[in-house]
UniProtKB/TrEMBL annotation:
Occurrences of domain Pyridine nucleotide-disulphide oxidoreductase dimerisation (ranges): 339-445
Entry binding sites for NAD(+): G175, G176, G177, Y178, I179, A180, N181, E182, G263
Protein name: Glutathione reductase
Domain of life: Bacteria
Record's GO cellular component terms: cytosol
SUPFAM superfamilies the UniProt entry points to: FAD/NAD(P)-binding domain, FAD/NAD-linked reductases, dimerisation (C-terminal) domain
Keyword line: Disulfide bond, FAD, Flavoprotein, NAD, NADP, Nucleotide-binding, Oxidoreductase, Redox-active center
Record's cofactor remark: Binds 1 FAD per subunit.
Signal peptide positions on this chain: none
Length: 448
């Protein structure tokens, strides 16, 4: 028995922290976790999960219209934001309970309060209680970044967007990344007038150019407006509570809500990290090595707080690897190659591996195969919306090094295809697989 109160103290009960806590406990460690807000973290409480439920809710707008082409007499339907919001929030509360239950089942001690570091092996809780631990894991995630400009306090972020009192008629979204495009799709389907305002001239930097262009074109066709090279100058709040957004290079835009989605920063402020000697980078991210260890040997970090790849499944892998390595006698290093990702826009995007531009830069000669098609369901529905699949192949080895897709269910299809890319399969392997007909996914094995 060590002299410490716990073998492991985890700060933050999000995806990475909960996984690390329960796995470390299952390896026999005495574990405590502190959470100042709600168990589950960003993904469960105010991110992936409630967002995906809103995406499902929004998609009914199209499904109800399309159903008429498939023979259903659908009366004019009204959407009730309050009902969806409350159902989504109730589901979040249910999941929060399950996460808490998981910790309890693994005999992890949960402190529902803020904890800060007061030394390499000591934390202080908000009530002043001091607790020692042989190792401390920081898993405090990220926080929405809001650029400074006059009136920025009138904007909301993804933290607040799930709780709106009513459906806004006019939505202005700052940023052109994941959150901007996902919520643009959601609000647009619900009938709000949506304008995306971006400081640069592209959306979804990092995704393949042709796929981004396709989303832009479809989004515009659906009625979403875009302003590019338009930095936010100020937000003015009027007496009736409505907002006017003043932009550089563009006319002002009136809005009921302004959603800022300009990236997320590591949540490290006020945690006592600098005093404990933990090295941070210029953005405040904890610097860790491949074993998730910081510059202080007893302090580790996983997930968005380290700003490696800001995705839930990556944080979970890091939490698992940390616990297995440190408490399970099974040294594990996370492999960051070919991590698949998705944007749950309307329609959604799925991607794994190199974009065409990256592959040309890195590999020199590549072969690119595309399928630009209208999904069978869209044809009958009279929906003029084309899917685009793109495969990038290394000319020298025939290996598939990138897959990029936009279209119905693209993330679902991509997850399965990512196994093949991760396994290093070749274009010939894809070709050798018989098509499953009729499906959209069959395009992947029919690329010419
Ligand atoms: P993103 O990084 O996706 O996009 C940020 C956007 O904001 C970019 O368009 C960027 O422009 C712009 N921007 C950055 N800094 C400024 C600034 N100072 N002023 C004005 N605009 C700025 O961030 P999000 O907020 O959309 O999402 C945060 C993270 O959460 C994502 O990176 C992702 O890791 C994660 N996430 C993942 C999802 C998923 O997996 N489906 C869904 C939602 C979030 P520019 O391109 O010029 O840099």
């Amino acid at each position: 028995m060590s002299n410490f109160d716990f073998d492991l103290f985890v700060i933050g009960a999000g995806s990475g922290g909960v996984r690390a806590s329960r796995v470390a406990a299952s390896h026999g460690a005495r574990v405590a976790v502190a959470e100042e807000y709600r168990v589950g973290g960003t993904c469960v409480i105010r991110g992936c999960v409630p967002k995906k439920l809103l995406v499902y809710g929004a998609h009914f707008a199209e499904d109800l219209k399309d159903a008429r082409h498939f023979g259903w007499d659908v009366p004019d339907c009204k959407f009730d934001w309050d009902r969806l919001r409350d159902n989504v929030l109730a589901e979040v509360t249910r999941l929060e309970g399950l996460y808490g239950q998981t910790l309890e089942n693994h005999k992890v001690t949960l402190f529902k309060t803020r904890a800060t570091l007061i030394g390499p092996q000591k934390v202080r809780l908000a009530d002043g209680q001091e607790i020692s631990a042989e190792r401390i894991l920081i898993a405090t995630g990220g926080w929405p970044f809001v650029p400074e400009f006059p009136g920025s306090e009138h904007a909301i972020t993804s933290n607040e967007v799930f709780h709106l009192d009513k459906l806004p008629k006019r939505v202005v979204i700052a940023g052109g990344g994941y959150i901007a495009n996902e919520f643009a799709g959601i609000f647009n389907e619900f009938g709000s007038k949506v304008t995306i305002v971006n400081r640069g001239d592209t959306i979804l930097r990092g995704y393949d150019e042709q796929i981004r262009d396709r989303l832009l074109q479809i989004s515009m066709t659906k009625g979403i407006e875009f302003r590019f090279n338009a930095p936010f100058e100020s937000i003015e709040k009027k007496e009736d509570g409505s907002l006017t957004v003043h932009l550089g290079n563009c006319d002002p835009i009136d809005a009921d809500i302004v959603l800022v989605a300009a990236g997320r920063v590591p949540n490290t402020k006020g945690l006592g990290l600098e005093d404990a000697g933990v090295e941070l980078d210029k953005d405040g991210a904890i610097q860790v090595d491949e074993t998730n260890q910081s510059s202080v040997p007893s302090i580790y970090a996983v997930g968005d707080v380290t700003n490696r790849i800001q995705l839930t499944p990556v944080a979970i892998r890091e939490g698992q690897a940390f616990a297995d390595s440190v408490f399970g006698g099974k040294p594990t290093v996370v492999d960051y190659a070919n991590v698949p990702s998705a944007v749950f826009s309307h329609p959604p995007i799925g991607a794994v591996g190199m974009t065409e531009a990256e592959a040309r830069n890195k590999l020199g000669t590549v072969r690119v195969y595309t399928s630009d098609f209208r999904a069978m369901k869209n044809v009958l529905a009279g929906r003029n919306e084309r899917a685009l699949y793109k495969m990038i192949v290394n000319e020298a080895t025939d290996q598939v090094v990138g897959l990029h897709m936009i279209g119905p269910d693209a993330p679902e299809i991509l997850q399965a295809a990512a196994v093949a890319v991760k396994a290093g399969l070749t274009k010939a392997d894809f070709d050798a697989t018989v098509a499953l007909h009729p499906s959209m996914a069959e395009e992947l094995v029919l690329l010419k």
